[in-house]
UniProtKB/TrEMBL annotation:
Transmembrane segments: none
Cofactor annotation: pyridoxal 5'-phosphate
Protein name, as recorded: Threonine aldolase
NCBIfam families per the UniProt record, alphabetical: GntG_guanitoxin
GO CC annotations, alphabetized: cytosol
Domain Aromatic amino acid beta-eliminating lyase/threonine aldolase: 111-405
Keyword Repeat included in the entry's annotation: no
Keyword set, alphabetical order: Lyase, Pyridoxal phosphate
Amino acid sequence: MLSPWTSTQALRGLGRHVGVGAHKVNSVVSSLYLADRDVGTSRRTTLTSSRHPPHVSRLSVRAFHTAAPSLAIADDIARAVTGAAAANAPDVLEAIGGLANADRLKRVARDFRTDTITIPTDAQILYALRASRGDDVYREDPTTNALEERVARLSGKEAALFCSSTTMSNQLAIRSTLTQPPHSIICDHRAHTYMWEAGGAALFSQATSHALTPSNGLHLTADDIERNLCLGNDIHFAPNRMISLENTMSGVVFPQEEILKIHSLAKKHDLALHLDGARAWNVAARELERRGLDASKDTDIQAVLSELLEPFDTVGLCLSKGLGAPIGSILVGSKSLIDRARWFRKMFGGGWRQSGLLAAQADWAITHHMPRLAGTHKLAARLAEGLEDAGCEILAPVHTNMVYFDPSPLGLSTDTVMAALAALPDPIVLQDNRCVIHHQTSPKAVEDLVAEVHRLGHEAPQSERGKAKKAKLGY
Ligand SMILES: Cc1ncc(COP(=O)(O)O)c(C=O)c1O
């Protein structure tokens, strides 16, 4: 926690930075002092030291209880930071987050490996300071309860469960839905639930996966699934009980008409339909923009998200990818399913205690980072355009925040490109031919990446063109 003196200076600095007047900053400072005062004797000692401004000592604890609405004041300053992002206020100010985190933000801005790489903003953490500190296993944490209620509402489902990761949300959905083996799940052969969750479905749910290759190379279709359905009583097989889809996959948006067809098929055969919606917020952000709706309004998000998720029985919605919560994912579904999932979450060791700090940061992320997603999609489009212009092939439609490129037409391998980017004076990090844009990616990093690939392309010998190893559309 910040010392009162540091926080005073930092907030005044922040206030100046974002153009918030001294009066407002003083009220925030008082509020934080008094919040500190609320936490115990050691703080109280600091508070009565001569280093804090005189007006603070005049305020009583009673005044704090009556005058300070719990999240509103920290929220004011935090909102000012977010609102001032366009005016170049960074997500981390050295005066608040410290030098190491301010530096980390600069590195993250040039890191294209994944959208989980973002760091919590100062504003997000200030907001979380006032989160409730109850025990979520006892269901006694109002901030966590409020987050679950909010996401259930936004997604149009009855209930929601805050989990530590989307791997956990997915596995809980599978475990809470499937009951008696033998049983199987139909999914894409690249599905996270199948390939990237350490075989969890086999262990936790005793389920086998029937992993299909989409005939169109991008996403499964109802025809793909129907042709491969495994139902009935043939004792050789583990019959399908669930279809699990993923949206987005490789940044590509699953067409909703196809989802509706798959939903009809699922209902016809009494199969549960799950969505790994790790990046469903990106799908919603794209749709909000397409319809001219406002990604900062819950009513608009709800209109779009609930429609997108309506066909699914269960959805895992990641909070720590595009939205930039430090940790977390939410499983949504019917009340009875979520009650069961809560039980299994405890069994998996995922029941958490004072989760309010995390829930508040996730809540902040929905409010303040959801509106940033459209910008990440624009940056991705710009990156794709620049790479294509440099002579690379773009391997999948760039619908959201991912660009898969193949530099082999330039005579370059992905490894060569990665090494050159890593060797830049201000390095750019890539782990393969997938570039992921997140809300802290800087436009300059995108331009630098494009410029470097242009340069490498010009320097590559003509004789090498077409000979380099072709990069593929991976996960
Ligand atoms: C599509 C998809 N689903 C699920 C996950 C798992 O998320 P987590 O890291 O929160 O377990 C990921 C992580 O990258 C993912 O990309």
